[in-house]
Amino acid sequence: QALFNKTKNYPVIFLFLCFNAMMGQANDIWGQSLLPDLMDYVIIAVYLTLLFIFALHKKNKKSELHPQYRFFTKALFAKILGAIALCLIYTLYYKGGGDTTGYYISSEAMVNLLFHDPNAYFKLLINGASRESFALFTPETGYPWYIDDPNSFFVVRIASIFTLLGFKNYFTSAILFSVFFFIGYWKLFLLLCELYPRYDKAFFYAIFLFPSVLFWGSGISKDTVALSATGFFIHAAYFLFVKRKKLFGNALAFLITLGLLLAVKPYIFVALLPGTLIFTGWNYIKKI
Predict the structure, then answer these.
(1) How buried is residue 261: exposed, middle or buried, by Cβ count under 10 Å (0-12/13-18/19+)?
(2) Is 146 left (phi over 0), alpha (psi -120 to 50) or beta?
(3) Would you state the torsion angle of the CA atoms of residues 22, 24, 25, 26, taken in this order, to the nearest 10 degrees?
(4) What does the DSSP assignment read for the chain?
(5) What is the pLDDT along the chain (288 residues), one digit of tens a residue?
(6) Please, are residues 280 and 242 in contact by the beta-carbon 8 Å criterion?
(7) What is the pTM of this model?
(8) How far apart are CA 288 and CA 268, in angstroms?
(9) By C-alpha distance, which of 122, 147, 152, 118 is closest to 135?
(10) How many angstroms from the chain centroid is the CA of residue 207?
(11) Cβ distance 91 to 101 under 8 Å?
(12) Are 17 and 42 contacting, i.e. CB atoms less than 8 angstroms apart?
């Protein structure tokens, strides 16, 4: 109250309250409620407003040359609604049980570790965890799950970035997580629209509104990462090996998404490989 009366600096006060809320949640992270409080609702509203402005700007800028961008705002907010739906089901129906909440709360322990020992946090973020890494955590930071599962802990490592940006709120973090990985879905949509432009509306429904994909492919989960990486991988492979455009950027995207698939669900790459070889090889066969 004293800070408010003296400064009247609303942005500074807002950031101060968010930081105070973050540090206040450090204890007993497995026992706290995952539902948002009043400050969390304010943060969610700010993020959603910024995302809506960004999506509208992107749509208006690109729609004239690329008609498929008329779906951009709807597609982005469909993913956001899918993430919120996943959060609601796992907080209200499953009462906080399940992998998606486990990923989030484990990522919250990572964020707490960042404030206690930044070097240890960045070591885990870059190199991953081992059984010995458990000793880096304390009752004050909380103890993460999935230390013995590199694939699952990879999701925790990624989620910790969005948990930090989301001020340690499950719903905000899930929204930001789904927005970041939305790009892979969008890349797949753009590729299919280029190949079959007459069916852009059907592709929009199939990729962004199909119920099971919308629900399980949003929020903090392996499926969100894997499906996004799959879409980006196919897009990058097509433009790298078939169209031969933007070779450096597409080669980099191809390698990064390949790494994501191998880190999260390696069997998806095994399933993708034959089809990728066929549709890239067919281009060369047609030229003979």
Answers:
(1) buried
(2) left
(3) 100
(4) -HHHHHH--HHHHHHHHHHHHHHHT-S-TTTS--S--HHHHHHHHHHHHHHHHHHHHHHHHHTTT-GGGGGHHHHHHHHHHHHHHHHHIIIIISTT-SHHHHHHHHHHHHHHHHHH-HHHHHHHHHH---GGGGGG--TTT---S-TT-HHHHHHHHHHHHHHHHTTS-HHHHHHHHHHHHHHHHHHHHHHHHHH-GGGHHHHHIIIII-HHHHHHTSSSSHHHHHHHHHHHHHHHHIIIIIS--SHHHHHHHHHHHHHHHHHH-HHHHHHHHHHHHHHHHHHHHHT-
(5) 444 444 455 455 444 444 444 444 444 565 566 888 899 999 999 999 999 999 999 999 998 889 999 999 999 999 999 999 999 999 998 887 789 999 999 999 999 999 999 999 999 999 888 888 888 999 889 999 898 899 999 999 999 999 999 999 999 999 999 999 999 999 999 999 999 999 999 999 999 999 999 999 999 999 999 999 999 999 999 999 988 888 999 999 999 999 999 999 999 999 999 988 888 888 788 878
(6) yes
(7) 0.85
(8) 31
(9) 147
(10) 16
(11) yes
(12) no
Residue with the two structure tokens 């609601």: 88
Give the tokens for residue 1.
Answer: 């109250």
Q: Which residue has the tokens 């309250």?
A: 17
Give the amino acid at 231: G
The amino acid occupying position 162 is: F
Identify the residue whose tokens are 């199939």: 206
